[in-house]
């Protein structure tokens, strides 16, 4: 039995080395930090609640289809730019437009214009939200309009000119479309620098806020290209544009 005891004495230090190293590693390893856990992902389709003097509605945004336009809109929202602006243009049975002018119908200073993303596969159907612009396709800033009916003739056709380029859809009303219809039914007329189409009373955007990161959608997301009933188009002379 003596040779066996001597063998164990020689092996014991060798066997204890890995065990000691494991203990040392456990003592020196930094504890797991709660901050190392992955941050919650932003909603794929963020939503913005718009409160107006005629009621509230919610816009669901589509950054996967119009990333530059959505980022631009969200920047204005987060800056509080839209608070106190108005819907200055209402064309019954066509569209409701706003987001630039104050209660005194004076334009606010905007960020630089953005590229037109109308060629994104989204159609200007009832309830969709699109960027208003001038004759230059790449001239959109803060103004947006809501389609009250299906307006497919405002869609991208080609890049030949501003007339064929279309208007970039970047969101859709998912709650409160009845408020938009209410605004659409207001009487309109001339006011301030505009020769017509100004609603009476003037519709004030009291606030526009991004719904919280953990917020649940107010409704099931609605595709902006399906589920719409075609409607008759208004006269071709009416176009969403900057005044």
In a few lines, what is going on in this structure?
The chain is α+β, with helices and mostly antiparallel strands and 243 residues long. The protein contains four helices and eleven strands; from the N terminus they run αββαβββββαβαβββ.
Layout of helices and strands, plus pairs?
Blueprint: H1 2-28, E1 47-52, E2 55-61, H2 67-78, E3 86-87, E4 89-91, E5 95-98, E6 128-131, E7 144-147, H3 162-165, E8 169-175, H4 177-184, E9 188-191, E10 194-199, E11 203-210
Antiparallel strand pairs: 1-2, 1-11, 2-8, 3-11, 4-5, 5-7, 6-7, 6-8, 9-10
What does this structure look like?
The protein is of the alpha+beta class. The protein has a domain at 47-210: Cyclophilin-like (Cyclophilin, Beta Barrel). The chain contains four helices and eleven strands. It has a nine-stranded antiparallel β-sheet with strand order 3-11-1-2-8-6-7-5-4. It has a two-stranded antiparallel ribbon with strand order 9-10. The model is unreliable at 1-37 and 213-237 (pLDDT under 50).
Looking at the structure, the CATH topology of the domain at 47-210 is Cyclophilin
The share of residues in extended strands comes to: 15-25%
* Poorly predicted runs: 1-37, 213-237
What Rg is obtained from the alpha carbons, in whole angstroms?
A: 29 Å
Q: How many helices in DSSP terms? A: 4
């Amino acid at each position: 039995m003596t040779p066996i005891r001597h063998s164990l004495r020689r092996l014991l230090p060798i066997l204890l080395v890995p065990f000691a190293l494991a203990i040392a590693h456990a003592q020196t390893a930094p504890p797991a930090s709660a901050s190392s856990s992955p941050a919650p992902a932003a909603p794929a389709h963020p939503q913005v609640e718009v409160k107006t003097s005629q009621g509230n509605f919610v816009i669901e945004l589509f950054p996967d289809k119009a990333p530059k336009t959505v980022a631009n809109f969200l920047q204005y929202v987060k800056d509080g730019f839209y608070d106190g602006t108005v819907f200055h243009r209402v064309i019954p049975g066509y569209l409701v437009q706003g987001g630039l002018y104050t209660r005194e119908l004076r334009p606010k200073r905007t960020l630089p214009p953005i590229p037109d993303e109308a060629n994104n596969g989204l159609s200007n159907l009832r309830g969709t939200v699109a960027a208003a612009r001038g004759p230059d396709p790449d001239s959109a800033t803060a103004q947006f309009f809501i389609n009250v009916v299906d307006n497919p003739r405002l869609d991208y056709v080609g890049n030949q000119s501003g007339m064929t380029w279309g208007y970039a859809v970047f969101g859709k009303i998912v709650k409160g479309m009845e408020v938009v219809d209410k605004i659409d039914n207001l009487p309109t007329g001339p006011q301030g620098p505009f020769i017509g189409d100004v609603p009476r009373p003037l519709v004030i955007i009291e606030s526009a806020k991004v719904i919280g990161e953990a917020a649940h959608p107010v409704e099931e997301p609605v595709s902006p290209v399906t589920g719409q009933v075609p409607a008759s188009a208004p006269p071709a002379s009416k176009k969403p544009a900057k005044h």
